[in-house]
Amino acid sequence: MMHSIRLCLVLHNHQPVGNFDNVFEQAYQDSYRPFLDVFESYPDLVMSLHTSGPLMEWLDERHPEYLDRLVRLVADGRIEILGGPFFEPIMTMIPSRDRVGQITTYSKWLENRLGAKVQGMWMPERVWEQSLAADLAAAGMKYTLLDDFHFKKAGMIDEQLYGYYVTEDDGRTLAIFPGSEPLRYTIPFQEPHRSIEYLRGIAEHHPDSVVVFGDDGEKFGTWPETKRHVYDNGWLHRFFDHLRAERDWIKLTTLAEAVESLPPQGKIYLPDCSYREMTEWALPVNRQVEYEQLYHDLENDPRWPDIKRFFQGGYWRNFKVKYPEANEMYSRMMATSARLADAQKEAIERDGSLCDALLHARQALYRGQCNCPYWHGAFGGIYLPHLRNAIYNQLIAADNLIDQATGKTSPRVEAAVDDYNFDARQEIRLAGDKLIALLAPAAGGMLYELDVRSICHNLLATMARRPEAYHRKIAVGPGGGMGKVASIHDRVIFKQAGLDQRLHYDPTPRKSLLDHFFAPNVDRDAFGRGEADELGDFVQGFYESKIRRAADRVQVQLSRTGLVGSREIKLTKGVTMAAGSATLEIAYLLENLPTDETFHFGVELNFAGLPSQADDRYFHDVAGQRLGHLGSELDLEEVQSLGLTDEWLGIDVGLSINRPTSIWTLPIETVSQSEGGFELVHQSVCVVPRWQVRGDKSGKWSVTLQVTADTSRAESRMQPRVLESASA
Fold this sequence. Notes:
By secondary structure, the protein is of the alpha+beta class. It has 21 helices and 26 strands.
């Protein structure tokens, strides 16, 4: 007689904040709806389902009938709804107050809309640190699931992973299920009988066990080739038929039922961990290459089953080191969270409740914590500009709402100094009613964030080009995984031809106010490839700073004495922001220049979120004459202005200069990996005003630039909605 086991099927459906509407719709049509269609036709099956908040809100708006189906399945006891943080943040990335707030807010939403009793949660990306246990328990969660990989890092072996365990932090307890990695790799990529055979082996040797399959719902139709495999070729029907045929010994159950009916296997404390592949991706590139090579070399070693359990890569938080752009988003999010917490505390003390503006600010903050663009692995992640833009959009919106709630609505400008990006060095924040700018004196005096508040857009949400471990595969060429169903981890597909010729790496961040002294023979192409020879040490050098304040304007003065070749030069740049103005004025003064020698001096500016290759995104001259789309490589001479227009976004970025100037423009494009393959992604528009400079009789040279963000086009589109809202 076959011994029985319990099988928990757990699906996690997610689309990130800011993803394109057509991507949501395609995933719904290819995965979420057809899976439910098949599942409903097997009335004796049960499962646990997690749907992230961004996707759930979209479904409620675009396909409420889908949620109505879930309501019925919940009421019938066929689907257990799992909760979690509302907008799918990495839980270790956000403050404790926001962990609890996100979870409790989403639990209430799910209970109100679906009639669900939420007791357990999905752990975003299975990123775990032990201190999370107390916050999850405080938010009302009784259980969650992680990978068996986490448990093996704590010293457990396979035979101990067929049940659930209790963990504790600060006196609060939480149940944790280990999800099966073997099932993650057989479902749905191998025929159903392989999963049944795996379960049969467990049942024979470990009767009355609990085995958990927990993975992305998108692998059932949205991942490449899976729609045809799972639905058109009937894989899911066959899988459910197998489960039904073996129901005398495979007992499908939910996580809630397992916790209620079975005691824990014991107690455990898990190390800081995430799923196995993510620990690889979090490593520095050179170490990642070594890790992958060692992993493959050891797979054929007879000792590998014993070695594997001790084999682990990096730590999730180091994505913020690997990608400084992730740290910029993170530090911006943390500042917004702290500011909101202060505003909420003051409102409660003053009024006893929160106004609508603060409630909306909290939701915007939570949306700005969505994890996907804060890291990178098999999915596009941080390399996807629209996801980065969405994060900043929500964080800037939250700041605007906090200002509204605290009465800061008049024209104003202020300056503050703090360690805004957590690098133990001081940054400077200029904040006006139109713009917010962040400067890093210790890193070349660069401007690394420029928020246009009227449209909630950061013009410096850029991404530098850097080596990735998977770039080695590009030289091999396309083909891996084509024509068959393969895990996204194994596919080698090129979305464009010639990607091997587009692999260029940037020696410095792609930010603004980067001060270059080029070698005389440097051209635009060399600069575009990241191969321009620098004669100066200013680009990432340390700048002294001071702030000058007036009633309606603030100026930051940044100065450095450095070398250009063997010549000692002093460079001072002043960045001025005025109340009520959407213009940054940048004045440069070079001193101690020779009067008999010319230097090639350029100021690098980058503008993000302005796509290329589109007719409604273009360069133009002072007369409005179009000069090409925003991916054009221009080499302008003797000009004093340049405009960058994005009609869809509704912004015209104007650059004006008080002396004749040469200007390079070029697109910054990365070659990155996503679930669909390798692709070229436009990251920013680089604009480099440059001059052949020589000192006057006192050894000085100066220039003044103005960068203006004109959003009148966008504001004119907003006005009818504002009036309509007011009349309502």
